[in-house]
Amino acid sequence: MIELRPSGHRAEIGYVLGRPWWGQGFMTEAARAVVEWGLAQPAMFRVWAVTDVDNVASARVLERATAAIGALILDNVLTVSEMRQALRLFDPDQTEAIVRELGYDPR
Fold first, then answer.
1. Can you give the three-state secondary structure of 55-85, one letter per residue?
2. Which domains are assigned to the chain?
3. What is the pTM of this model?
4. Looking at the predicted structure, is the pLDDT value of residue 47 above 50?
5. What is the mean pLDDT of residues 7-36?
Protein backbone atom coordinates (compact mmCIF):
# COMPACT_ATOMS: atom_id res chain seq x y z
CA MET A 1 0.00 0.00 0.00
CA ILE A 2 1.23 3.50 -0.81
CA GLU A 3 -0.44 6.79 -0.04
CA LEU A 4 0.15 10.45 -0.84
CA ARG A 5 -1.44 12.75 1.75
CA PRO A 6 -1.71 16.32 0.37
CA SER A 7 -1.71 19.30 2.69
CA GLY A 8 -1.67 22.65 0.94
CA HIS A 9 1.41 22.95 -1.26
CA ARG A 10 3.05 19.80 0.09
CA ALA A 11 2.27 16.13 0.60
CA GLU A 12 3.57 13.31 2.72
CA ILE A 13 4.17 9.91 1.21
CA GLY A 14 3.60 6.81 3.30
CA TYR A 15 3.92 3.16 2.41
CA VAL A 16 3.93 -0.37 3.73
CA LEU A 17 4.84 -3.56 1.89
CA GLY A 18 4.35 -7.18 2.91
CA ARG A 19 7.54 -9.07 3.76
CA PRO A 20 7.23 -11.56 0.84
CA TRP A 21 7.67 -8.65 -1.59
CA TRP A 22 10.63 -6.94 0.13
CA GLY A 23 13.84 -6.47 -1.84
CA GLN A 24 12.25 -6.76 -5.28
CA GLY A 25 12.11 -3.05 -6.14
CA PHE A 26 8.32 -2.80 -6.05
CA MET A 27 8.16 -0.04 -3.45
CA THR A 28 10.95 1.99 -5.02
CA GLU A 29 9.13 1.91 -8.35
CA ALA A 30 5.78 2.80 -6.76
CA ALA A 31 7.27 5.56 -4.59
CA ARG A 32 9.08 7.09 -7.55
CA ALA A 33 5.84 7.16 -9.57
CA VAL A 34 3.85 8.69 -6.71
CA VAL A 35 6.50 11.35 -5.99
CA GLU A 36 6.78 12.25 -9.69
CA TRP A 37 2.99 12.50 -9.97
CA GLY A 38 2.76 14.64 -6.83
CA LEU A 39 5.44 17.07 -7.98
CA ALA A 40 3.78 17.31 -11.39
CA GLN A 41 0.70 18.82 -9.76
CA PRO A 42 0.75 22.61 -10.28
CA ALA A 43 -0.07 23.42 -6.65
CA MET A 44 2.36 20.94 -5.06
CA PHE A 45 5.92 22.02 -4.31
CA ARG A 46 7.17 19.41 -1.85
CA VAL A 47 6.70 15.71 -1.24
CA TRP A 48 8.26 14.39 1.95
CA ALA A 49 8.42 11.29 4.10
CA VAL A 50 9.71 10.20 7.48
CA THR A 51 11.29 6.84 8.18
CA ASP A 52 12.65 5.16 11.29
CA VAL A 53 16.44 5.58 11.42
CA ASP A 54 16.79 1.85 12.01
CA ASN A 55 14.77 1.00 8.90
CA VAL A 56 17.63 1.16 6.41
CA ALA A 57 15.63 -0.48 3.63
CA SER A 58 12.88 2.13 3.85
CA ALA A 59 15.42 4.97 3.84
CA ARG A 60 16.99 3.38 0.75
CA VAL A 61 13.58 3.27 -0.97
CA LEU A 62 13.23 7.01 -0.42
CA GLU A 63 16.78 7.62 -1.60
CA ARG A 64 16.23 5.68 -4.82
CA ALA A 65 12.75 7.08 -5.40
CA THR A 66 13.95 10.65 -5.21
CA ALA A 67 17.35 10.34 -6.94
CA ALA A 68 15.89 10.93 -10.38
CA ILE A 69 13.51 13.55 -9.00
CA GLY A 70 16.36 15.91 -8.11
CA ALA A 71 17.51 15.92 -11.72
CA LEU A 72 13.90 16.32 -12.89
CA ILE A 73 13.39 19.35 -10.65
CA LEU A 74 16.70 20.86 -11.66
CA ASP A 75 15.89 20.36 -15.35
CA ASN A 76 12.54 22.07 -14.96
CA VAL A 77 13.29 24.81 -12.47
CA LEU A 78 16.96 25.74 -12.31
CA THR A 79 19.53 26.55 -14.93
CA VAL A 80 22.89 24.86 -14.40
CA SER A 81 24.28 28.18 -13.17
CA GLU A 82 21.45 28.53 -10.62
CA MET A 83 21.97 24.93 -9.55
CA ARG A 84 25.67 25.58 -8.93
CA GLN A 85 24.83 28.65 -6.83
CA ALA A 86 22.37 26.62 -4.74
CA LEU A 87 24.80 23.71 -4.30
CA ARG A 88 27.60 26.01 -3.17
CA LEU A 89 25.46 27.00 -0.19
CA PHE A 90 25.50 23.38 0.98
CA ASP A 91 28.88 22.06 -0.06
CA PRO A 92 31.13 24.44 -2.00
CA ASP A 93 33.95 21.87 -2.25
CA GLN A 94 31.75 19.28 -3.94
CA THR A 95 29.64 21.47 -6.25
CA GLU A 96 31.23 20.47 -9.57
CA ALA A 97 31.33 16.78 -8.61
CA ILE A 98 27.60 16.90 -7.80
CA VAL A 99 26.84 18.70 -11.06
CA ARG A 100 28.72 16.00 -13.00
CA GLU A 101 26.99 13.23 -11.05
CA LEU A 102 23.62 14.70 -12.04
CA GLY A 103 24.69 14.44 -15.65
CA TYR A 104 25.55 18.05 -16.39
CA ASP A 105 28.78 19.20 -18.01
CA PRO A 106 30.46 21.44 -15.41
CA ARG A 107 31.79 23.86 -18.01
1. CHHHHHHHHHHHHHHHHHHHHHHCCHHHHHH
2. 2-75 (3.40.630.30)
3. 0.60
4. yes
5. 90
